[in-house]
TrEMBL record:
Protein's name in the database: Uncharacterized protein
Keywords tagged on the record: Membrane, Transmembrane, Transmembrane helix
Highest taxon of source: Bacteria
Lineage, highest ranks first: Bacteria, Bacillati, Actinomycetota, Actinomycetes, Propionibacteriales
Transmembrane segments: 38-60, 80-99, 108-141
Annotated organism of origin: Kribbella speibonae
């Protein structure tokens, strides 16, 4: 509301630029909303962690010898296969849960896990095309500009 008090107009709200004391608004800050890249990456990582947990559970069934042979190279190594799949599950699930809480270390851990997944996928070609694609997508999402800006501008 404007009125006259002497020669100056009186305003009830902020200045003409909607900033404090009429300063222009800060257009260079990154929004605090979670970028879709971070959301998609966390969903992918949670899905991969859940698959690792499922594989650990299946290793404890009658299919344990076959799964153990695929994972370790020999039958009868079910405890080693279960331990490996549980470590794998932790490597995906823990960073995925902290990623949306804006913890930079979670981003770096997922970058490392995705890079190891890509390396493993390349060594197991052509049977690992799906895993290679998933890990490449995860790495791509973690390295995009909106993701970097969101983590660096806390």
């Amino acid at each position: 509301m404007t009125g006259q008090r002497g020669d100056e107009p009186v305003r009830d709200g902020p200045g003409p630029y909607s900033g404090l004391f009429g300063d222009p608004p800060d257009t260079y800050s990154y929004p605090t909303a979670t970028p879709k890249q971070v959301t998609v990456a966390s969903v992918i990582a949670i899905g991969l962690g859940a698959l690792c947990l499922l594989l650990a559970a299946l290793t404890l069934t009658s299919a344990g010898d076959q799964i153990s042979e695929v994972l370790t190279g020999s039958r009868g190594n079910a405890p080693v296969a279960v331990a490996a799949t549980l470590v794998c599950a932790v490597a995906y699930l823990v960073p995925a849960l902290y990623l949306r809480k804006r913890r930079p270390w979670a981003r770096y851990v997922l970058i490392a896990v995705a890079a190891m997944g890509i390396a493993g996928g390349i060594m197991a070609l052509p049977a690992s095309l799906l895993g290679l694609a998933v890990h490449t997508t995860l790495l791509f999402l973690m390295l995009q500009r909106p993701t970097k800006l969101w983590f660096h501008h806390r």
